[in-house]
Amino acid sequence: MSSTEINQASPLLQVQQLSIAPKKTPTRLLVNQVSFSIARGKTTCVVGESGSGKSLTALSIMGLLSKQLVLSAGKVLFNDGLSGEQDLTQLAAEDLRKIRGAKIAMIFQEPMTSLNPVLTVGYQIGESLTTHLGLRGEQLAAKIASLLDMVGIPASRANSYPDELSGGQRQRVMIAMSIACEPLLLIADEPTTALDVTVQAQILKLLDELKTRMNMGMLFITHDFGVVADIADDVVVMFRGEIVESGTKQQVLNHPQHPYTKALLACVPDVEGKNALKPIDYAWLPENQRSQSQANIMSEARL
Amino acid sequence: MTSAILVANHLIKTYTQRTGKFGFGSTLVKALDDVSISLTAGKTLAVVGESGSGKSTLARCLLQLQPLDSGEVLFAGQDLAKLEAAALRLARKNLQMIFQDPFASLNPRMRVGEIVGEGLLIHSLGTSVEQQRKVVAMLKRVGLSEADMQKYPHEFSGGQRQRVGIARALVLQPKVVVCDEPVSALDVSIQAQILLLLKELQAEMALSYLFISHDLRVVRHIADDIVVMHQGKVVEQGSVVDIYQQPQHEYTRNLLAAIPGKKAVNA
User: Fold this and answer.
1) Interface ipTM
2) Residue B99 lies in a domain
């Protein structure tokens, strides 16, 4: 009992001094000494432009980095409350596989490309249930039906193929897949970027409800401050591979300290149209770094 | 109404959708159901709605990139829907489009100089030296350099590619530009730059924009008038200020309520 109490005390996930670089040029850090932590039942939003390293950070937690990239330093400590803290970067592939999908799940940005077009959505949702929990037959069908119901899709759609569903429904299927095994941590990589505003609002509400109901920690990646304002507890702002600012939502949104956060917040168009549009301001950067080509950073990051 | 530059009356467009086993059945989907709009010269008219509401179909039908079932599109006294191919090509010089996806809408095998200059070539405007000069001037205007003419689209970032798309549309000095979600594929930081560029160019070149978007925050900043579409029908239209302050239709209210970040504003 005492050991679990100790385990409960440390947060669900701690990323410590994480650095990622391409294998060929190990000195060029794409993610540079990134540290943050996520508590149970809380949402941490990672905000930044494309190429800032936010997706790489998320992929490295799951051990899904491309072979051309290497994790050059850092730890990813995961505490499931049972077996103590584990460093995910040190785990063998087989042990990691037991955690992926079961304890840590991920929702990807594009529901069209991340679902398999030749398998029914019911099968795809059930896959992790069979693998991790050994569910089969009627039990499996019942669980799939309840999951679909939970995300607001009629259970009869389990036999549909992804192309028969709308974009919002596909994203709901992705969510059903990810929460199937009731993970402790949910990583959502821009889950609503490809969706309409109305659908986006529904999905955000759904994720927020599920997070509360299942007491999940959530790592939410986005570049939209509007979404951050709706869903975050804590915010981490990344720029060119480094964390420039982190804190609670109120701190970061209402009292941003770093000039980059201020600049990024200033270029979000407001609903009332009171503030004039502003292009992003790099005046705070040293002169020689301002024109660093974004295209280069981006193509490297997509390796 | 005298200053309207592009008027569409009673546009109807239906698609046939295969349904049932093996697609033997079919149903008609009304993508445009009696849509009438009017774009005032020098202004921006925003068309908003969710995906499937018919806003992109509207854009494509206005420019005759897709045939209409019925209805008329009046530009400079001509009904575009009834023009012959050759006459339509002439009219298109004044009607350009900026596409949504800067990654898919540029030919990966053409250099940027060729992409931007192609319109000039098709309409045989000026000698090749003059064309070259216009392309360079346009690229510079949208914030790219002369050296970029020799590059291929993959060498640019998303925002830069969208600048190329804007240069391609504007090099012909069109009167009407249809922008189909020009910033929704871009980062917030880049979005503002592109929107400001579009605004500046509008003032300089006296452009009229038909601006298609599902992001009401963006629309608030760029549009003068707004048309709300839902399931192929126009449910509400009016000036931006009126619609944002007093939305009449239930659907418009839903759209406005769905804007992310409202919670924080109210809290």
Assistant:
1) 0.72
2) no
